Structure formats: structure tokens, C-alpha cells
UniProtKB/TrEMBL annotation:
<keyword id="KW-0456">Lyase</keyword>
<keyword id="KW-0285">Flavoprotein</keyword>
<comment type="similarity">
    <text>Belongs to the DNA photolyase family.</text>
</comment>
<feature type="binding site">
    <location>
        <begin position="366"/>
        <end position="368"/>
    </location>
    <ligand>
        <name>FAD</name>
    </ligand>
</feature>
<dbReference type="GO" id="GO:0003677">
    <property type="term" value="F:DNA binding"/>
</dbReference>
<feature type="site" description="Electron transfer via tryptophanyl radical">
    <location>
        <position position="353"/>
    </location>
</feature>
<dbReference type="InterPro" id="IPR018394">
    <property type="entry name" value="DNA_photolyase_1_CS_C"/>
</dbReference>
<dbReference type="GO" id="GO:0003904">
    <property type="term" value="F:deoxyribodipyrimidine photo-lyase activity"/>
</dbReference>
<feature type="site" description="Electron transfer via tryptophanyl radical">
    <location>
        <position position="300"/>
    </location>
</feature>
<dbReference type="GO" id="GO:0071949">
    <property type="term" value="F:FAD binding"/>
</dbReference>
<feature type="binding site">
    <location>
        <begin position="228"/>
        <end position="232"/>
    </location>
    <ligand>
        <name>FAD</name>
    </ligand>
</feature>
<dbReference type="InterPro" id="IPR006050">
    <property type="entry name" value="DNA_photolyase_N"/>
</dbReference>
<dbReference type="InterPro" id="IPR002081">
    <property type="entry name" value="Cryptochrome/DNA_photolyase_1"/>
</dbReference>
<dbReference type="InterPro" id="IPR036155">
    <property type="entry name" value="Crypto/Photolyase_N_sf"/>
</dbReference>
<dbReference type="GO" id="GO:0000719">
    <property type="term" value="P:photoreactive repair"/>
</dbReference>
<feature type="domain" description="Photolyase/cryptochrome alpha/beta">
    <location>
        <begin position="3"/>
        <end position="131"/>
    </location>
</feature>
<protein>
    <recommendedName>
        <fullName>Deoxyribodipyrimidine photo-lyase</fullName>
        <ecNumber>4.1.99.3</ecNumber>
    </recommendedName>
</protein>
Length: 466
């Protein structure tokens, strides 16, 4: 009987354009796949919302793999032990996986690779999750990029490999039942909102390109509109890869040149993800260390009451509370509002960006090892190519600009449903009668702001400029 191959799945939960899986299926013998929910101490474990997504995604993938003759196993524990065990159990002579790019993950994988090779296995790794490997893109001086725009210019010059076309199939097997344990009670809002898995990812992309891309440059900043792709959790778990997105947009532009500028804008956002991965790969643990060292000297405030109010969407600043409630209920938040909530925490409340990053890590379905810390550091001002420390978002004027009629606020903060547009982003300035009426109607009073926006802005400027 031909020898077997083990595919170790991580952030690549798809059949199409999955180089490790495609390589395994080119061999004749049995192909096994495993996902390990890793508990190794040196690795960052998944957050709660991401785990909910993961389980649904694996359940969908298990069926699709079985149709191609691949049995998926789900294990929880230390991958450093489980992968060699699986190799023994399946008598695999080959082990394939797609790469990850965080420093701890890379060191971990390199050690596993060395141990497996010492035991005689053939081990190979591939690129499933980036357009260009981080070591294949560098400045003229040969150094990594620290600024987005030249990075994007360089990326556009690079040849992007076509997604893998045909994939071999082995004889179908029946899909194994996977045991993920009990689903948390709060998962309902996430499962209601999202269709999860590779087929859903393809549908979401195609609907976005057909219906929303043309208006994306304008609509992407309006939180009430469904004007962005919502591809982020699908990309996070690799239910779709960036090469598939890249070529779908390029083909669309070729067939419909009027879509060129919207298509380019969308691809430039996908390139921000690439840039985050470039930073993740080249910098030292961006979830723990500020990229600009002086930010690790800042005396951040310790204010657990304010942190809790922020997490629960009870700060009294409407657009911030709307965003934090959207996050809690659906596992996702609009990009503009992510910036505003992060700015309130790190600037007005002067709370360490890592506290916010951790909360997002636990509550976002798209919690991404590169995008999350890189974006938090961008807002805090501590990152590469970050907003300068003195750029502090004003959530009132931002709300008035991007949610002019307060539709987004009213959707997530029902206490403000009856507050007129003029006051919806600054209810503290309205006649108390108006607020009393609104809270009587909704049955809950909306809190007063936990921080004075003007005074806290001054405080942030004086602390951050030191
Ligand atoms: C504080 C903060 C935390 C964030 N945390 C995450 C995170 O954990 N995971 C995550 O995927 N994104 C994160 N982002 C970036 C961005 O908000 C999301 O990628 C975007 O809102 C996802 O929605 P979408 O797929 O509809 O985006 P679209 O506008 O449709 O963009 C398409 C894709 O491009 C990428 N992209 C878009 N904007 C950015 C950006 N600013 N930076 C990096 N990549 C981008 C994403 O992969 C996204 O799915 C964060 C932003 C901020 C300000």
C-alpha cells in the first residue's frame, strides 16, 4: 500500500488554493488532516469568538475533505506532542502544512520540522495566506518596509502566483464526527449573523464584487451601510486566500474597466493585511511590544472601571458604545468604529493599547495575529507608519461625519432611539427633558460620559509627547 501523508491545517481551512493539501493529494496513499487547538505555552491561544468560528468552519471543512477522501481529526493540546503522535498513528511518511508568520509560531514549527525530519519524515511547508512572502519584499537597501505606501508600490510590482487550479481527489469516505464540546451560550449572536466556511466565503466575495464594490470607496467609511466585504473572518481562518481575492478583482477589472478605481481601492485594503503580516514577521512580538520603544515607557492609567465601561459599551460616548455593543453581539465591528473605540481607550482614557488589543482578541471573530496588534499600534501611535500621537479622533465630530443621522448609533444603542439627530452623538448636550423622555421610552437610561473629551485630549497630548 502507498505511504500516507499528514496535512496539518492551521489558518488555511479550505480546499481551493491550499498548497499543502494539493501537494498531499498528488500522492497516491491515504491523506489525513489534523487541526490542533494549540495549548503550547509559547503560542497565543485563540480567543472565545474565534473558537466559535473555528468549530463551525472545521465542521464544514470536514465534509468537503471527506468527499476528497481525506479524514479530518480535531485535537486539543500541545501541537509539539500531538503532531508526532499523529504521524505515528497514521504511519505518515510525509507531513505538509502552510506557513504561519508570528515569531513564536515560526520557532515552534521549525522545532517540530527538525524533530520529524530526524525521525525520517519528509516535511514541507507552503504559502497559503499571503500574496508575497515577507522575505521576498524589501526596500532598495534590503531592509523590511516600515511605511505602507512604498510597501504597496513594491507589492504591486511583484508577480502574484495564480491560485492552484485543479486539485486531485481520492475516493470519498464518510465524514467523521468532530467533538468540540459544549457551545457557549453567547455564541448565538455570532452564529445568527454569519455564514461560516469555504462555500460561504466564496459567496460573500462574489456578492460583494457584484453588488457593493462599485460604491466601496465611498461606502466603506459609513458604519450603518453594509458597504465593506466582511471578508475578514474568512481571511483570518483561510476559508479563502488573498490570491483568490486578488485574481477575482483583477479579472473583474479586466472585464469591466469602469471598476478599476474601486477595485484598486479594495486591493489596497487587502494590502494593509499584507503589510501587517510583513510587520508581524520582521518585528519582535507586536502583540506585546510597542514598535516604537518609547511607548513602552508611558505611564498608562490603570482604571478598571473605565476599562469595563468601554468593554460593555457603557462609556456614554454613543458611537463608541455602538461599536463595542456591535462587537459583543456579532463578533465584528466596522473599521471606522474600531479606530474610534481604540482611540478613546488609548488616548482619552490613556489605557494601555495591549488591554484593548486583548479584548478585541477575545471578542472578534476575525481576531488576527497580524492585523489586530498592528492596527491597535497604528491607532495608539506606537506602530510602524502610525497615526502621529497628536492625532486624536473626536468621536462626536467623527460620528456626525460618518453617521450623520445616527442610524448606526440607534441600531446598537436603543436608549438613544428617540434622541433627535442633532444630539444623538452628544446626548449630554441635549435638554435633559429630551433624554428623560428617551430613557423612559426605552426603559433604560443612557450613561453620562465617563470622560471629558476635551480635558482628556489635553492630558493625552501632554503624556504622549514626552
Ligand atoms: C483597532 C483595530 C483592530 C483591528 N483588528 C483587526 C483584526 O483583528 N482582524 C482583521 O482582519 N482586521 C482588523 N482590523 C482592520 C479592519 O478593521 C478590518 O480588517 C475590517 O474592518 C474588516 O472588515 P471587512 O472585511 O469588511 O473589510 P474590507 O474593507 O472589505 O477589507 C477587505 C480586507 O482587507 C483587509 N483590511 C481592511 N482594512 C484593513 C486594515 N485597516 N488593516 C489591515 N487589513 C485590513 C482585511 O483582511 C479585510 O477583510 C482592525 C482595525 C482596527 C482599527
Amino acid at each position: 500500500m502507498a505511504s500516507s501523508t499528514l496535512v496539518w491545517l492551521r489558518n488555511d481551512l479550505r480546499i481551493a488554493d491550499n498548497p499543502a493539501l494539493a501537494a498531499a493529494l498528488r500522492h497516491e496513499g491515504p491523506v489525513h488532516a489534523v487541526y490542533v487547538l494549540e495549548t503550547d505555552r509559547e503560542l497565543r491561544g485563540l480567543g472565545g469568538a474565534a473558537k466559535v468560528w473555528l468549530h463551525e468552519s472545521l465542521a464544514a471543512l470536514s465534509g468537503a475533505l471527506a468527499e476528497r477522501g481525506v479524514r479530518l481529526s480535531f485535537r486539543e493540546g500541545e501541537s509539539g506532542k500531538i503532531i508526532p503522535e499523529m504521524v505515528r498513528e497514521t504511519k505518515a511518511e510525509r507531513v505538509y502544512w502552510n506557513r504561519r508568520y508570528d515569531p513564536a509560531g515560526r520557532t515552534h514549527d521549525a522545532a517540530i520540522k527538525t524533530a520529524l525530519r530526524a525521525d525520517g519524515a519528509e516535511v514541507a511547508s507552503f504559502n497559503a495566506s499571503l500574496l508575497v512572502e515577507p522575505w521576498d519584499i524589501a526596500t532598495k537597501q534590503g531592509t523590511p518596509y516600515g511605511v505602507f505606501t512604498p510597501f504597496w508600490t513594491a507589492l504591486r510590482e511583484k508577480p502574484i502566483p495564480d491560485p492552484i487550479g485543479r486539485i486531485e481527489k481520492h475516493e470519498a469516505i464518510s465524514a467523521p464526527a468532530l467533538d468540540f464540546g459544549k457551545r457557549p451560550a453567547w455564541a448565538g449572536g455570532i452564529l445568527e449573523r454569519w455564514a461560516i466556511g469555504e462555500d460561504a466565503a466564496k459567496r460573500v466575495l462574489s456578492d460583494f464584487l457584484d453588488d457593493l464594490l462599485a460604491d466601496y470607496p465611498n461606502d466603506r467609511d459609513l458604519p450603518r451601510k453594509d458597504g465593506t466585504s466582511r471578508m475578514s473572518p474568512h481571511l483570518r481562518f483561510g476559508e479563502i486566500g488573498p490570491r483568490q481575492i486578488w485574481f477575482a478583482v483583477r479579472h473583474l477589472i479586466d472585464s469591466k474597466p469602469s471598476m478599476a478605481s474601486a477595485g484598486e481601492k479594495f486591493l489596497s485594503e487587502v494590502a494593509w493585511r499584507e503589510f501587517s503580516y510583513h510587520l508581524l514577521y520582521h518585528r519582535d512580538d507586536i502583540a506585546r511590544h510597542s514598535m516604537q520603544e518609547r511607548f513602552d515607557e508611558i505611564e498608562w492609567r490603570s482604571d478598571s472601571k473605565a476599562l469595563k465601561a468601554w468593554q460593555k459599551g457603557q462609556t456614554g460616548i454613543p458611537i463608541v458604545d455602538a461599536g463595542m455593543r456591535q462587537l459583543w453581539q456579532t463578533g465584528w465591528m466596522h473599521n471606522r468604529v474600531r479606530m474610534l473605540t481604540a482611540s478613546l481607550l488609548t488616548k482619552n482614557l490613556l489605557i494601555d493599547w495591549r488591554k484593548g488589543e486583548n479584548w478585541f482578541w477575545d471578542t472578534l471573530v476575525d481576531a488576527d495575529p497580524a492585523n489586530n496588534p498592528a492596527s491597535w499600534q497604528w491607532v495608539a501611535g506606537s506602530g510602524a507608519d502610525a497615526a502621529p500621537y497628536f492625532r486624536i479622533f473626536n468621536p462626536v465630530t467623527q460620528g456626525e461625519k460618518f453617521d450623520p443621522h445616527g442610524d448606526y448609533v440607534r441600531q446598537w444603542v436603543p436608549e438613544l432611539s428617540d434622541v433627535p439627530d442633532k444630539w444623538v452623538h452628544k446626548p449630554w448636550a441635549a435638554d435633559p427633558e429630551i433624554l428623560n423622555k428617551a430613557s423612559l421610552k426605552s426603559g433604560t437610561a443612557y450613561p453620562a460620559p465617563i470622560v471629558d473629551l476635551k480635558a482628556s485630549r489635553e492630558r493625552a497630548l501632554s503624556v504622549l509627547k514626552r
